[in-house]
Design brief:
alpha/beta; Rossmann fold; seven-stranded mixed β-sheet; 5 helices; 7 strands; about 40% helix; elongated
């Protein structure tokens, strides 16, 4: 009986934390959906991420793109996330993981980020966020910056490459209205 008295609150707390982790991000404007490994590989390959790149992942979630870019490609990788539980998770993962010196975690709104140092911007966001990001990209990206998106294209832009099987789009910002 004592075990049950202890186990029930712990299990309830775990359920609440798990539900928040999955559904709580709706309060911050987007639902959580992890990027499958094959999609992350496609995004990194299409963007040709290399050690001299600075990859910024807008809405980084649990960091699948960021940590692989740093660990496997040697890039400086920046995770931008607004949801506080995920930020705490990202910071713990950075502290404990490989290539932690090449990973930066920013707690903030993805629409307010300085993107001048980015050579690659990665996004896996909903259509409305992509619509709202287009003018941000057009204002803040340096010419030649690569934008790689999973699932939803950048409205009004023409992809330079497209992996139809994984729904990954690559754009190269040319510095003028697309």
């Amino acid at each position: 009986m004592d075990l049950l008295v202890w186990l029930l609150p712990v299990a309830s707390l775990a359920l609440v934390v798990a539900a928040y982790f999955v559904f709580g991000s709706f309060a911050f404007g987007a639902g959580y959906q992890p990027a499958p490994r094959r999609v992350v590989t496609s995004m990194l390959d299409l963007a040709n991420v290399a050690p001299d790149d600075t990859l910024v992942d807008l809405g980084a979630g649990t960091g699948a793109i960021v940590f692989r870019a740093a660990r496997e490609r040697g890039a400086h990788a920046v995770a931008v996330e607004i949801e506080p539980i995920r930020v705490a998770y990202l910071r713990a993962r950075r502290r404990l993981g490989a290539a932690h010196e090449r990973v930066e975690i920013r707690w903030g709104n993805l629409f307010d980020q300085d993107l001048r140092g980015a050579t690659v911007v990665a996004v896996f966001l909903w259509p409305d966020a992509m619509r709202r990001l287009r003018p941000v990209f057009e204002e803040r990206l340096a010419p030649g910056t690569r934008v790689v998106s999973h699932w939803h294209p950048v409205p009004g832009w023409t992809a330079d490459a497209h992996d139809a099987a994984n729904r990954v789009y690559l754009y190269r910002w040319k510095g003028a209205a697309a």
